[in-house]
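Tutorial handout. Part one gives the primary structure; part two gives the three-dimensional structure as tokens.
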Amino acid sequence: MRLRDAALDARCLRALIAKELAQIARDPSTFLIAFALPLLLLFLFGYAVSLDTTRTRIAVVVQDDSAPALRLAESYRRSPYFEVTMARSLASVRGMMVDGSARGVVVIPQGFGEGVKRRAPPPIQVITDGSQPNTASFVGTYAEGVRQSWAAAEGLGPAPAATGPPIALSPRFWFNPDLRSRYFLVPGSIAIVMTMIGTLLTALVVAREWERGTMEAMMATPISMAEFIASKVIPYFLLAMASMALCTLLAVFAFGVPFRGSILALLAVASAFLMPALGLGLFISASTKNQFVASQIALLTAFLPTFLLSGFIFEIGSMPLPIRIITYAVPARYLIPSLQTVFLAGDYWGLLLPNIGIMLGFGFLFFALSFRVTRRSLD
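Part two.
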């Protein structure tokens, strides 16, 4: 016997949803994944994980006792970007570079003060740890910036052009003026949470029915295929939306992430993403009939691509071309920029609507595959 392919019956659907909700209520692991895991992820990405390059540890070696050299060293010590350890010789700080307690060394050479008197100071030496290229680039760039600011204060900068006043550049960063990584990591972590709930939990629902032997009992009832699938999807859709609401409240009120968009835009983006997430989970569950295998496949096909290929941590534009092409098949690629736009910029529907349409397209594809595989497995 197999399930009939018929329209939805409201009374039957309510009973099936009540059954699924009762199973969710009896399973503590579901609540751990739906509510405890989001709290842990938000704490990690809100406090523990930071991409902000501030207070980088460096050593400043002052080999000259002149007043200009000491003033330059003091400029590095007062910089908000560096945590400085003063030293008198380069040999005394070599160990700090080896063990990682310093990511760079600035050497102010002997004769620096005499060069300043002649208005031709000798160049300083900046040594960086090349094992971390991003940090090394930051140390080199900001060390030079501190030196230039000191030189301007000392009157050692280039003479202004005779044709007019010098041009002053005042950089301005839109949407995230302080360049705080928390402002885009926390909204991105909401995508990870929704992937875990939408795909991982849904990947277990049909497989759990087969393992517990209850699928045969359901096949003997006069329910339709549409009712069966809807009863498996709707409870986890509601659970994921509740978890998303919890994450949003924590992001705004606990972590101080600005929310410049509307609730409507957030609900539209989240609902659109849950379609492919739930559809993929249901497709995996119907294909495997084993909870352990389904959970492993869900991690490989949903969690890892969302974490690595969606632009959450690594910028897609910096990836090799073949990898960038693969990212177009990852639904979270369209969710994360939408979430960041709603939080930081507002309701820019010109960006949101195309992403919503693409996510709905993925959802239609996965649900069509789920319907076909489920019907074949029940024949």
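Part three, for discussion. The longest helix spans residues 349-378. Strands lie at 56-62, 82-87, 104-108, 125-128.
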